[in-house]
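Hi R.,

As promised, here are both runs. First protein below:
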Amino acid sequence: MLIPAGPVQAQATVTQFFATPTETFTAPLEGRLPADLVGTVTATETSTGQVVDTGKNVFFVHGVDNFDYHLTLPDGRFVQSGLNRDLFVFVATHRTPSSTL
């Protein structure tokens, strides 16, 4: 027997998200280089993911953050980051506060 889901049973809403903020700042290259050797860093974080709203104050969130770092030194040398990736998954709930006097 097949029972189709009615509107009350199928309340999940799926929302995709995407963001790419970039920051630029000066910093030294850590390690054995002279501390006064300062370059320009460009750091970009790319976040993509999905939120599933169950319609019952429960939200399932998952996605990936990719980080890219590029340091350019005054003499033209540069350092490019390798793969730097964070995966994330979490469940968020919302409860309506109750008050008693």
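And here is the second one, sequence first, then its structure tokens:
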Amino acid sequence: MPIYMRGSYFFVRPGQKRFEISSNFTNYLEIGIQGVTEYYLEAKVENDEFKISGTLLNPSGQVLCNINQNFIETSLGCIKEMTPNGYRIKDNDKNQVFEIRVENNICHLKGAIYSESGEIVAREQEDSFLIFRGPAIIGKSNGSIGIKLD
């Protein structure tokens, strides 16, 4: 029988800046392992700012872009489009690849994280960001982690 966790807070309190992950709230999210898995996403609150870094792949497992603290560093034609509440990353064909949207100190992640084989690792679904497989870390502070998915 599955266990569902909803409305939990990992290393944050209500009112603080936080990410909404699977209807829970956290200060930190890591999907994949930098330098080990082809895909990687790190979302954190640092110095009172939301910062996103990582490597986004397309459904064919090819690298679309590398992001470092909200800036696209390398890309196959990806662009960053600012919005009133965050930003979108779009591919060559102007299709949305990923979006960061902030409302009331809550950062919502929208889009899909693909593995090198094209499998969906995590994605936004019904206004919640769901993780389908690890490795992943949800919540981190001073060397302690909240939940670790292998």
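A quick note on the second one: The chain has one domain: 12-141. Let me know what you think.

Best,
J.
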